[in-house]
Amino acid sequence: MVPASRSFVNPRASVPSRPHLNVDMDNDSNVVKSLQNPRIKEVARLRKRSCRDERGVLVIEGYREVLRALENDHSLRELYYCPEFFQGENEQTLMARARAAGCRLIECSPPVFGKIAYRDRPEGLLAIGDQVGRALAEMPVGVQSLFLVAEAIEKPGNLGSILRSADAAGASGVIVCDPRTDINNPNTVRASIGTLFAVPVAQADTRDTIEWLQKNKIRIVTASPNARQNYTEIDLCGPVALVVGTEQVGLSQIWTDNSDESAMIPMHGQVDSLNVANAATILLFEAVRQRQAK
To answer: Which helix (H) or strand (E) holds 242?
Structure first.
């Protein structure tokens, strides 16, 4: 994360003129150049979760992340941009698409964009959108439902990686139980490369999640180093929820008590567990392999 007081040097200072944009900005065409601009100060305050929650928004930075939000019809309120930081030739098309979707575009000077950017090397695009998250009752359930349940995830980077794997595996959704991190954290968005907007995500209490899974006849398969069965020996076809916990403490006892089956990922080296995102990926793609084989 970049401190709010950080000033960026224009990476294209040698370019004599700013890139020409073909997007019609109307009254948004004035470039924000003051670091004391009230709107910029408000965006900078969104580094704090309390401020994001109060406004019901999340911060989306980067071309791919903003594009995936638009591709999945996620509501964007504002898009801050700085042409000097652009890294490709498709930004104009993305901006036009955002504007057509009702998003307000605001151009910033490099120092101003540097104040609101999270990345060490900004890409010149940062959007403010509605927060992500749905109720358990809104999660899609079918005859081949494949859910990934993550309990007590602490790091937004791990959660983002899980979402990325869930999207790649075509999972029905991700359920985050008793989280210790914010699913709308900018680093979750970044680590997921925008797949946060493509995969249905719910945040719920562990007991409520178990009750919902059992009510919908979704088998619960927990990952545990103490399990007797190799993960490849367990049937992962049909409605299944793969449940993973943190590598430090694993899953809570309530998951063990309510598990239909427990899977072990064998360790052949000195470590006795995998990063939770890696474990989730292995289990998800074993489920994919089994389903494709039938």
So the answer is: strand 240-244
Do residue 51 and residue 140 come from a single domain? Answer: no
Place of tokens 């239909």: 260
Q: Which helix (H) or strand (E) holds 127?
A: strand 125-130
Mapping DSSP to helix (H, G, I), strand (E, B) and coil, where does residue 269 land? coil
Q: Would the pLDDT of 26 be above 60?
A: no
Domain of 229, in residue numbers = 136-293
Taking the C-alpha atoms of residue 65 and residue 127, their distance in angstroms, rounded to an integer, is: 9
Contact between 202 and 140 (Cβ < 8 Å): no
Average pLDDT of span 81-96: 96
What confidence tier does 247 reach under pLDDT thresholds 50, 70, 90?
low
Residue carrying structure tokens 């960026």: 8
What is the domain count for the chain? 2
d(CA 255, CA 288): 23
If you average pLDDT over residues 9-17, what whole number do you get?
36
Q: Residue 153 corresponds to which tokens in the numbers above?
A: 């995830």
One domain, residues 87 and 151 = no
Residue 20 lies in a domain: no
Nearest by Cα to 160 from 182, 142, 143: 182
Question: Residue 209 in contact with residue 177, Cβ under 8 Å?
Answer: yes
Whether 182 and 215 share a structural domain: yes
Q: Whole-prediction pTM value?
A: 0.87
- Is the pLDDT at 168 greater than 90? The verdict is yes
**CA 121 to centroid of chain Cα atoms:** 19
